[in-house]
Amino acid sequence: MGLQIEVDPGEVGFDAARLQRIDRHFARYVESGKLPGWLVLVTRHGRIAHLGMHGFADIDSGTPVRPDTLFRIYSMTKPVTSVAIMMLHEEGALELTDPVSDVIPSFADLRVYCGGTARAPQTRPATEPMRIWHLLTHTSGLTYAFHYLNPVDELYRRAGFEYGMPEDLDLAGCCDEWASMPLLFDPGTAWNYSVSTDVLGRVVEVVSGQTLDEFFRTRIFEPLGMTDTGFAVDRADADRLATLYVADPQGRAQRHPRHEEAHAAAFELPKALSGGGGLISSAHDYHRFTQMLLRGGELDGARLLGSRTVRYMTRNHLPGGADLESMALGAFSEAAYAGKGFGLGFSVLEDPTAAKVIGSAGEFAWGGLASTAFWVDPAEDLTVVFLTQLMPSSTHPIRSQLHQLVYQALVD
Asked: Which segments of the protein form a coiled coil according to its record (predicted)?
């Protein structure tokens, strides 16, 4: 499905020459070996004002990044799962205050880590049930194995969850495993990036009676015309799938070697469908998703959410109006902490001055492990999508630089 510039930049408040700074800047990332290739898409007032791409989807074959290239979006899956949960909420199928154990019984009687080692952890009963809103806001007390900050992280690694999920477990089994391990903290008392959204994926399955891929396809992707997005790539589209690269110690893109495991896995539907990081998508499709959010839950006659629901999701839900800097445990996340809160599936820019970025209060965003990123700025009627395939996303300051390059081009 074709992507193209839809409006002269000047008609929607951009300086065309300044927009070209985006492409020149990130072209240097490719020339210096920092990125294999990339695509960036910028819209204003619902129309594409800038579409740039440079470099390779696969370095060895010389296959260029094209408008229809497929990318692993990893944690940019999380907003899709959050939308699914809120669709069910709008139907009265669940309350945000419902205990997770009402849907997944193994989450009853949770315990919290309070000392000791991974081999001999000390725990106590949780003082608060884990609720749906805790999962949406990453205040659940769950964690990720790759954080390497707490003995509980090590417990996750020992159970086979370092990157992804054990091959022998389905999503229900994964949730039962996570529920059996201690929480880092009582739900609602801190913020930690975690498998929370994967648990939400299981909530979607139980409440809807559909598998997560089926719910996504019938309720989100087909209505929005997102025909390229799913948990696996059809082998007929193999030449469209970008290769995943891993940065070397100098931050250059290199094969690791070619991350063959990730490449092979992309063509098979996984046993455990990851609502936290499992989707593969295209610029066209994620652009459609961001436009739906910008328009308050509707696009081209397909309404997924009510406008009030989207506004509710994209305000700061951290207790007491706290920001991430004060509530986060300091582990990795796909957003910088300063000046930002967290909504129901998105980081929310609360204070651009504190965040040291040019931007708008109320802008909401997230990114993915392979250095992908998006944001939606309702105040400026703006969306941005950036796609590449270099992991980890902390290798280069792509997101902060992209942010300043987009806003410096706005001149109206």
From this structure: none
Chain mean pLDDT for the chain: 95
User: Under DSSP, is residue 286 helix (H, G, I), strand (E, B) or coil?
Assistant: helix
Pairing of strands 280-282, 70-72: antiparallel
For the CA atoms of 385, 390, 393, 398, the dihedral, rounded to the nearest 10 degrees, stands at -50
Domain carrying residue 166: 95-197
Summarised one tens digit per residue, pLDDT across range 295-352 is: 999 999 999 999 999 999 999 999 999 999 999 998 778 888 999 999 999 999 999 9
Nearest CA to 156 among 193, 203, 105, 207?
193
**Where does 52-128 have alpha helices with state H?**
78-90
- The reply to whether 168 falls in a domain is yes
25-29: list long-range contacts, CB under 8 Å, 24+ apart: 25/401, 25/405, 26/52, 26/54, 26/398, 26/402, 27/54, 27/55, 29/396, 29/398
What are the CA-CA distances from residue 99 to residues 39, 192, 203, 211 (Å)?
41, 19, 11, 21
- The token pair at 387 is 């796609």
Residue 20 lies in a domain: no
- What the block records as the tokens of 246 is 């891993």
Separation between Cα atoms, residue 241 and residue 167, nearest integer Å: 23
CA gap 266, 231 in Å, rounded: 8
Interatomic CA distance for residues 366 and 301, integer angstroms: 26
SS3 22: helix
**Number of domains forming the structure of the chain:** 1
For residue 114, tell me if it sits in a domain. yes
> From the DSSP assignment, how many helices (H) and strands (E) are in the chain?
14, 17
**For residue 331, what is the DSSP state?**
-
Comparing CA positions, the residue from 183, 191, 93, 91 lying closest to residue 136 is: 191
Find the helix or strand (DSSP H, E) in which 246 lies. strand 245-247
Q: Which amino acid is at 186?
A: D
pLDDT in tens, 73-98: 999 999 999 999 999 999 999 999 99
Return the SS3 of 126. coil
What 8-state DSSP symbol labels residue 119? S
Residue 183 forms part of a structural domain:
yes
Q: How far apart (Å, rounded) are the C-alpha atoms in residues 17 and 20?
A: 5
